[in-house]
Amino acid sequence: SSSHRAPRITLQTLQALELFLEASPRPLAGSDIFNRTKMFSGTLYPLLARMEAAGWLEAEWEEIDPSEAGRPRRRLYWLTRAGQQMAVQALNTSPRNPRGGSPRSP
Q1: How confident is the model at residue 6 (pLDDT cuts 50, 70, 90)?
Q2: N or C: more exposed end of the chain, with fewer CB within 10 A?
Q3: Cα–Cα distance between 39 and 30 in angstroms, integer?
Q4: How far is CA 57 from the centre of its chain?
Q5: What's the rounded Cα separation, in Å, for the pair 69 and 46?
Q6: Distance between CA atoms of 11 and 43, rounded to whole angstroms?
Q7: What DSSP string describes 5-25?
Q8: Which tens digits make up the pLDDT trace of 22-67?
Q9: Angle at CA of residue 99, ends 94 and 104, nearest 5°
């Protein structure tokens, strides 16, 4: 069903949304977000799954040969149009703006 509840806007959600906005339209892997936020995988991957279920993110597996690359395939995530609007709105209205800076315009 498409009646997924939107993820709660936690500090971690804001951090992730801000990274996706900065990177857009380039996709990010979970490891990219971990490297920037040090969010543990037990927090990060459920958060990404909730954001994807809410329609804020789209995701696909990268097209590499793991044996040639010498590492597993990564799941790549990027903001949908709804996710971009949500990110801008959340970052503008949050009292816990991770930057502590002035609100950004879309």
Answers
A1: confident
A2: N
A3: 10
A4: 7
A5: 26
A6: 12
A7: PPPP--HHHHHHHHHHHHHTT
A8: 999 999 999 999 999 999 989 999 999 999 999 999 999 999 999 9
A9: 65
| 70 Rama sector, left if φ>0, alpha if ψ -120 to 50, beta otherwise | left
Geometric angle at alpha carbon 65, from 16 and 17, rounded to 5°: 5
Q: Which residues contact 61 (CB under 8 A, 6 or more apart)?
A: 73, 74, 75, 76
Which of 30, 60, 31 has its CA nearest to residue 48?
A: 30
How many angstroms from the chain centroid is the CA of residue 9?
A: 12
